[in-house]
Design the sequence.
């Protein structure tokens, strides 16, 4: 493989699961790393759509029927979000040129209600993916993840959840284009 696999992980990196990863939480997943430091790592699975809508989780927002994704298996009673475009919320953390994580939730809801931010420019997640100190490094050594620091914000927000994993790998080029076409079960090939 080329050196994308061995790149260091930082906030804004994408973790793409290896084609044959069997962990049901991460099969064919794309994880956006939001934080990676000496205390561990925090990320959000970008392509696992839940059955819930935002208005089913939050009171008094019946008009906001945004999709909600499963950010990971940890603390699924928490709600997280990313958005694209210009920085709208003071407490947001920049992950890429036009990609932001978090901020004041009430302020975000107000912006959604008045149309200052479009529902198509934001993603909500229940739960998150977390790794203790050294855990993600071990998984990288075991070739569980492919790392890229090339964020394709357009695909993150427009590709179907079922296609995002494949699109990201194809966009990486080279040998990754071949991985994108691997069947989930190689015995079916």
Sequence:
């Amino acid at each position: 493989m080329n050196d994308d696999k061995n790149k260091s992980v930082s906030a804004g990196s994408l973790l793409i699961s290896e084609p044959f990863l069997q962990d049901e939480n991460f099969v064919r997943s794309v994880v956006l790393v939001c934080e990676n430091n000496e205390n561990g790592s925090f990320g959000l699975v970008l392509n696992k759509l839940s059955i819930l809508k935002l208005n089913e989780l939050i009171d008094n927002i019946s008009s906001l029927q945004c999709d909600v994704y499963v950010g990971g298996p940890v603390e699924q009673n928490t709600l997280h979000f990313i958005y694209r475009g210009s920085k709208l919320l003071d407490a947001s953390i920049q992950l890429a040129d036009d990609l932001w994580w978090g901020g004041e939730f009430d302020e975000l809801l107000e912006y959604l209600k008045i149309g200052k931010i479009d529902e198509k420019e934001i993603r909500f997640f229940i739960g998150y993916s977390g790794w203790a100190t050294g855990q993600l490094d071990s998984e990288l050594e075991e070739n569980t993840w492919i790392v890229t620091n090339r964020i394709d914000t357009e695909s993150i927000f427009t590709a179907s959840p079922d296609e995002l994993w494949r699109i990201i790998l194809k966009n990486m080029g080279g040998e990754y284009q071949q991985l994108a076409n691997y069947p989930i079960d190689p015995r079916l090939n």
Summary: The longest strand covers residues 74-84. Residues 53 and 67 are 5 Å apart (CA to CA). Residues 1-6 have pLDDT under 50 and may be disordered.
